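Hey L., structure's done. Input below.
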Amino acid sequence: MLLNTIKVSNYYLVGLCLWNNDYLFVGCGDKTLKLIDLQKGKTIKKYNGYNNSVITIKKIIIPKYGECLITQEFEKNSIKLWVNNIL
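Output:
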């Protein structure tokens, strides 16, 4: 049974990371990272600053900072580490 369909972008979606029971990060073909509120079924934040599609998104724990996010862009040889106040 399909519970819900959430329209995120007019571009393809390539990276997904479930943050917790309420939020999902989505990497989009429009060179953004979007934060989706799963209860409301809509985008609540959009993070810019990428030159390519965000293809990898992973939640990690760093003792000094707590819950953090690592992202990687398509055809890039570097990652971005997001800390503090991600939500």
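Residues 14 and 55 are 5 Å apart (CA to CA). The mean pLDDT is 88.

-- N.
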